[in-house]
Each structure stands twice: as C-alpha cells, then as structure tokens.
Design goal:
The chain is mainly beta. It has six domains: 24-104, Immunoglobulin-like; 110-185; 190-273, Immunoglobulin-like; 278-362, Immunoglobulin-like, CATH 2.60.40; 368-443, Immunoglobulin-like (Sandwich); 520-595 and 611-617, Immunoglobulins (Immunoglobulin-like). It is 3% helix and 39% strand. It has one helix and 49 strands. The chain starts with 23 loop residues before the first strand and ends with a helix.
Length: 642
C-alpha cells in the first residue's frame, strides 16, 4: 500500500498463480454459402474474445470424405469448410472454430445486349458486341433468322443474323442471345463513257452501235444496258436505238450484282446529222423556138431523200447582167429567158437539194396551118364562119364588099358578093399573118308569102279582071277560064326587099263561077295624132250590086294601129256577098306626134280619094258544094271497091 503524507506505505509479497483464460470464437452468421460470382469467398466475420492474436483462416475443399487444404479462399463451385483460429497469448489460450459452406453454380446473364453495326461489302467486317456476366462470348452467323449459325463471318452483301452465346460451365449456366440482324451493304459501282468517245455521225440508215468497249466501269459484274433519248422540242424522250437524224443522248446503266449496287453514267449527247441529197439534171438543154406549148420538165436523177420533188419555173425579168428571177405558176410557153429549178425536199434524215437549168424561148415565124376558106350562104340564114388556122395565135376575120376595099369585123348580112381576110396579130412570141382575100356570096333568099286563096273568076272572064294582092302579078293576064272547074294560073311574086329576096313564080287557083258582081268596100287612108281614139269601122261602107248594102257585114281582119306610138300602120277590111264573092281592102293609118301648138297640125280626118288595093274574091258555094259531093261519091265508090 502506498504511503501518503499521512501514513507510510506497506508491502507484502505472497506468491500465487493466475491460469490462462479461454479464448472464444463465434461466427456472426450461421450460413456463409454463396453463389458463384467469380470472386473468392470473403472471410466470414468472427467474434473473438480472449487472445490478442489475430485470427487466421484456413480453407479446405471437400475431397470425398477428406478435406484438402487450399492455398487461398475458394471461388469455384464446390463444398468447402473454413477453419478460424486464434493463437494463445500470455493470458488466453488459443482457440479455433470451423464452418462448412458451399459455392453453388451461378445463373448467367447478359450485362450488355448483343449489337452489331452494318458494313459495306469490301470493308473490314464489324465485330459484334455483347457481354455476359460470366464466360466468354462466342458469335455465330446465319443468312436467315432461323437458319444454321456458324462462326464464319459473312462476306457478301446481304442481310444476315448474328447470335451471341456463352457456353455453360460448372460455375455458371450457358447463354444464347436472340438473333440480331445486320446488313452488309452493297458497295458502290461506277460506270462512265471513256474520254474521247463520240457517237456523232452522218445519217447512213444504220443504228448507233454502243458497246462495253466504250465504257469504264468498276464494281458490279452485272449486265450493261443503254437508254437512248431524243431531243424533241427541248424535251428528252425515250427512243429505240437511234438510226434517224437528230440530237440524242445515251446513258449506260450497269446492273447491280450480289455485292455491288447498280450505276448510271452521265448522259453522253451526240448528233446524227442529216445526210446530203443531190439533184442532177440530165437534159442538156431546154432552149427552143416558141411553139405554143409549155416547156417540158427536163429529165433528172435524185439521190438521198426519196421524198417530194418540186419543179419550179422562174423568169428573168431583169437583165442578163443583173438577173431578177420571179416565180411562175406553171411551165413557160412564151418567149423569154427562164430557168427551171428542181428541188428535192429534205426530210428528217436528208437535207434538201436543188439544181437549175437556164434556157430561152425565142420568137417563132408564124405560118398558115390551114388556108382560109368560106362557104357562101343565103340571106337570112346563119352566116357561115370562115375557117383558117395559123400555126400560132388566134385568127381574126374581116370583111369587105370589094377585094381592095376597107375590111372590118362586121359580118355582111345582105345578099351580094363579099371578101374575107384572115389575120393573126404578131406578138412577142410569133410573127403576124394576113391571108389573101377570099370571095364568097350571100345569095338572095326565096321569099315566103301568103298563098293567094279565095279568088273567084267569072266563067269566060280574063285574069285581068281579078285583082291580085299587092306584090303579085299575073304572068299572062289575058288567060281565061272558059269552063267551070279547077284551073291553075301562074303569077309572079315580087318581094318588097328585092335586094335580098328573089322574084319567084307562084301558082294561083281561082274558082270559076257563073258571073257574079264582086262587092266593093269604100275606105280611105287616115291620119291621127298620138293619143287620139281610133275607130276602124268608122266611115267604112260596103255595097254589092246584087245584095245591096253590106256595111254591116264588113270585118276587120287586120289592125296594127297603136295610138300610143307614132308610125304608119295598116287596117284590112273584108266583106263577102251571098254568092260567096269576097273582097278585101287595106288602108294606111298614120299616127303623128302631137304638135307643140295644139291649134296647129290638127288630125286630118278628111276623106280623100280612096286608094284601093281591092282583092276581089268571088266565091261560089254552089260550085264548091257540087265539087264536094262529087268527091264524096268518088271516095265511096273507091272504098266499096276496096
């Protein structure tokens, strides 16, 4: 005991022995089993009391009924035990405890899902990417999703599938991913026309030839085809392989194959030019003298286009030194300087062409192809047309009443001897012509006349007692009809126009009758003024020796009077007695224009001396009846005999 300021210390020594206490070890967990995770098992937590020395761990693996000491803590699947020890120290005894445990097989899983990038044929293949929780990933490939997968990495372009797999072990289960698709894209091809290649040419009926030798290409081994286009109105239109002239372009197309894409070249433009045509005039000359006919088309040949040929005629209206060619509507026939132009039309494939030939048509000497002739004709007939024909030109006829007289175009009308000439006027194309005069005659016509009828001749009476109508005259007026019956006598008819009509002999058959006096008509010529009223029977009387006054039986058988128009007209009266004797008388009626002074020139209606033109016709009906009866009797007898 220690001493203090108050007391002293004490010390006593007694020997004794302190025994070492036990050290205790206890696992905090009863179960230290684990699932394989590639990591060594962790040292279990142990509670220790006693010894101050660190605890140690000894690891044992089951080996049948024995335990084999391991160098390190285990990580693989298996049955194990751990022995935990604490060595004794000064105060505590040593101690140890053990615990059995197992590391069981782990369920594997993907920590990174499978993925792969596409690549292009010919490039380095992309490596798939996938990570498993345990184990090494192996990749396999197939060309179909449910096909057979192999480790061979595909090379050709296409769509493929890849799987990631991890083989199962004693430590962990195996893994296989779902297929992931990827594409090996086709590599690009290229195609172009070689530098300097040109398909320009002149039309030759042959199609353009384009071959692979005209191209440079890479990539695909596919088929090469060509597309041709023609430029139409500034637009490109697809066509077959061109043969015709025009502007074209060709595009080369390279078809893709398994590993390369298709490719199209830039269009190469080219031209098929129109070919030349030609016209060759083979006729040497078209020169000629004027003949009235148009120049014939010269002979010619053409080459190139077989299309339309146009013949164009032109006349030089200028001079030889300074020609001026003007188109004509047709081939020329007149005198002049000309040329023919033969034009061959162009078409889609040929150019137009032309050729010319100059020529002249010179003035011709005219001549009669048919000499002048003419037939005469009778007055009042249609005039005969002269006939004459010249080599060139229209014939004109002129007439004259004397050989050396003045000739005019008026065709003569009156009877007489005349002369005709034929002439052709000279032109720039031919000389003029004039024929010698040719005589012809217009003969007097036979006049027409009204047959004299109704004349009555007293038995034994001379013809001089019968007054014939005007213009008639007995050939022998002393002749008589001594017996009753039909007698024919000759008379001369003299027409009014004796210059153009013949005087002819006619037959007159008067009727002989017993003596009977012919009635008389008393009528005079009259003069009236335009507008006056005209009464033809006024102041006209008739008398007969046997019948007395016959005025009431007067007939007007002709009246041409027109009181509205000045002129000389005729009125003819007729009267017949009871014996059938008939007489006619014609007077003239003059219609004058009304005078300015109405008091002057009044119509003269005074009766003057009658100027008669009596035609005494004595008809004897008794005789006529007898003759008729005899005729009927004769006819009846003739019929009976028949």
């Amino acid at each position: 005991m220690a001493g203090t300021e108050n007391y002293t210390g004490l010390e006593s020594v007694v020997p004794f022995k302190i025994a070492k206490a036990d050290t205790t070890l206890a696992f905090e967990k009863d179960n230290i089993d684990k699932i394989y995770d590639k990591n060594v098992i962790s040292e279990p937590k142990v509670n220790k009391t006693g010894s101050s020395n660190d605890i140690t761990f000894a690891w044992f693996v089951a080996n049948g009924n024995d335990w084999t000491l391991l160098d390190n803590a285990p990580s693989d699947v298996g049955a194990y035990k751990v022995v935990v020890s604490a060595k004794e120290d000064t105060n505590y005894n040593g101690a140890s405890i053990e615990k059995k445990f197992s590391i069981s097989m782990a369920d594997n899983e993907w920590t990174k899902e499978l993925s792969i990038k596409d690549w292009t044929y010919g490039e380095k293949p992309s490596v798939p990417s996938a990570t498993a929780k345990y184990g090494d990933v192996v990749y396999t490939y197939s060309d179909s999703k449910d096909g057979t997968y192999t480790s061979e990495v595909p090379k050709n372009a296409g769509t493929y599938y890849v799987k990631a797999s991890v083989a199962g072990t004693a430590k962990y289960t195996g893994l296989e991913s779902a297929p992931a698709s990827f594409e090996i894209k086709k590599a690009d091809s290229s195609i172009k026309f070689k530098d300097g290649v040109s398909f320009d040419k002149v039309y030759d009926t042959n199609a353009i030839v384009v071959t692979k030798e005209h191209l440079e290409k890479t990539g695909s081994t596919g088929k090469v085809s060509f597309i041709f286009e023609k430029k139409v109105n500034d637009e490109w239109k697809n066509v077959e392989t061109p043969t015709e002239a025009g502007t074209y372009r060709v595009t080369a197309n390279l078809a893709g194959d398994d590993n390369y894409t298709s490719a199209t070249s830039k269009p190469l433009e080219f031209t098929i030019s129109k070919a030349d045509s030609a016209v060759n005039i083979t006729t040497q000359s078209l020169n000629k003298a004027y003949d009235g006919n148009a120049v014939r088309v010269p002979k010619y040949t053409t080459s190139g286009n077989d299309g339309k040929v146009t013949i164009k005629w032109q006349e030089n209206t200028g001079s030889a030194d300074t020609p001026k060619w003007e188109d004509l509507k047709s081939a020329p026939s007149r005198v002049g300087t000309y040329r023919v132009v033969i034009e061959l039309a162009g078409n889609d494939n040929y150019k137009p062409a032309s050729a010319t030939l100059d020529f002249t048509i010179s003035k011709a000497d005219n001549a009669w192809a048919k000499e002048l002739s003419i037939k005469g004709w009778k007055y009042n007939e249609t005039a005969n047309v002269p006939t004459a024909k010249a080599k060139y030109g229209d014939v004109v006829y002129t007439y004259s009443d004397s050989k050396d007289g003045t000739y005019t175009s008026e065709v003569p009308k009156n009877a007489g001897t005349y002369y005709v000439k034929a002439t052709v006027a000279g032109t720039e194309n031919y000389t003029g012509l004039e024929s010698a005069p040719v005589a012809f005659e217009i003969a007097k016509a036979i006049p027409s006349y009204e047959k004299v009828t109704g004349l009555v001749l007293g038995q034994g009476q001379a013809l001089s007692k019968i007054e014939l109508p005007e213009q008639f005259k007995w050939v022998d007026e002393t002749m008589t009809a001594d017996e009753l019956g039909t007698h024919t006598f000759k008379a001369i008819y003299t027409p009014e126009d004796t210059a153009n009509y013949q005087t002819i002999e006619v037959k007159v058959v008067p009727t002989p009758v017993a003596n009977n006096h012919v009635p008389t008509i008393n009528a005079s010529d009259k003069t009236i003024t335009v507008g006056d009223k005209f009464e033809p029977l006024k102041d006209v009387i008739a008398n007969d020796k046997e019948d007395g006054d016959l005025t009431s039986k007067i007939k007007v058988i002709k009246n041409t009077v027109d009181t509205k128009k000045a002129g000389t007209y005729e009125v003819t009266y007729q009267v017949t007695d009871s014996q059938g004797a008939t007489v006619t008388k014609t007077i003239k009626v003059t219609v004058k224009t009304a005078p300015v002074n109405p008091d002057k020139d009044k119509p003269n209606n005074d009766k003057g001396n009658v100027e008669t033109r009596d035609q005494t016709n004595v008809g004897l009906f008794t005789t006529l009846s007898i003759i008729s009866a005899l005729g009927i009797a004769i006819l009846a007898i003739w019929k009976k005999k028949r």
